[in-house]
């Protein structure tokens, strides 16, 4: 119970009552008692019992008993406590069990008596006693233990033992144990199946025998044994404490019995009685088997005390007010619990309030009994209705989880039935199963009636999928072995030709075996990396030698690149001059130097573009127009082509033809656009820009045509020179032949 709740100081005495006020109240009680003893037999407030059975019992003489009493028609204190007890026992109390496991059954019984609640709690020694659970202990999160793997179950049990009282998670511990045993049995079964596959039955006496060792299981059962040991120690300590409390309560009962024999002021005696009542309330729980008889002894002792003490009506009414105040505080706390969000906490505390109402609260005036009980019942009903709504909502969520899990099981069965045709498809199916497994384990629990069955179905369909997958890969073993043999043959070829000096022949062989390697399927995983590294090593050895040879052959091209870089840097360092002709002559000199240099490595070919861009800028700075600069720059390009081969001519010719076609297409498109524009409006910006674009494209087209013309001239000139060279060679050959055939003089 919270320290600040409405049940503090529920004994009727406020914390502010000081010693003077206590003394004045004692004096008032004594005065009222003396006045009551002097009244006649008809004086109002005289107390006796109206129970014929009780009046027939032998009465023990005590000094506090007024010798002459007459029966009063008003309700006595004895009547009040007996009637109040009967009213509580006979009334229907809507208090419900807090245990989730019996939640559904309890929800069907809207009203149960406090006596039934108490007897239900006494049925199981492992359950808590009459005391409420400690509200400072946080709620245990509901989890689906059946879907956890073995390491997670070990961690979960260890977490509960570290974070919660040892007596607060009995149900969870049992569920964890059942889930672990099922998972361990599955693991053992899988291990047996694997052992049978790897070790077929044999008559060999030395054949290995199946042994199942699970270190996680050893860890779990050691931890569970520790849990049971700690729980047993807790139960023993709890029993000892309950027996000590039982001894205290029996002592309290005996002290109440002794009050009637004490010769002292009635007010003092009554104060001692109240002190014993408070001590009774403060005493903790007692053993279940002694609860009913101890409570009955206490009730009879209290009843006998009231039998032997005739209270004045005012003193009796004062006690009624005190008890009414206590019961009103119980009601106020019950009303507050109606706003508690944690329904389990509210139910536990409400159960304690009902115990206090039954055991700790004394009787009240007859006219107040029904109203305050109705008020308490109404507050109880509010909490019960919230509990009912909570379980209804939980049942909806569980039903939704059931549907999700049923769909997951059906989907896994469908995937297993469809199967797969190759390794990639099986890997895709495996990923789908992983996603479904994750979804199943993260989905909350289904209704308890079907939750375990759904988990068993899930494990069954998962096993069937794994079996189908394993069967497929078993069939692949022979195929993978054949693939391994084929790749080993390719490795032998690669290693045979890795030192081949005939690079042209070796290159063709290496390309062929690399293509064949890609076509061959998978090999056993244990050999995959090893054979690939071996094959790759042989191939790399050949290509490294070939690259070294090519690098030697390209040494001249590297030197050409270095020479062109010097020309490029020299041209770049030129600064603008006032004498444009001198500057142009100097630029042309650099162009000539560039043209004399031969090919560069293919990876360095971009130096040509960089030089042409720089050359165009320098020509423009020399005073040439853009067209003249472009044509002069192209002369340098032609010089480079002259030192090239037929492939360079083809590439240049293709580029010029392609660019010429593109320009002509663009001009036609722009001319077509002009037809949709008012040609008379010379100020139209779109018209002006279009005409400008057409003019620029036509200029570029003229340049392209001129380049094609120059390229054709160069090609014809080179062809002519080649023919002349061939003719001259043929003529020289004929002359030499004639000279050799002429007779010597």
UniProtKB/TrEMBL annotation:
Which ranges are annotated Low complexity under compositional bias? 104-119
- Compositionally skewed regions (Polar residues) per UniProt: 1-12
Highest taxon of source: Bacteria
Comp. bias (Basic and acidic residues): 75-93, 135-146, 184-199
InterPro entries (alphabetical): DUF349
Q: Where is this region: Disordered?
A: 1-148, 184-208, 715-745
User: Which residues lie in Acidic residues bias regions?
Assistant: 123-134, 733-745
In its UniProt entry, what is this protein called?
A: DUF349 domain-containing protein
Organism, scientific name = Nonlabens dokdonensis
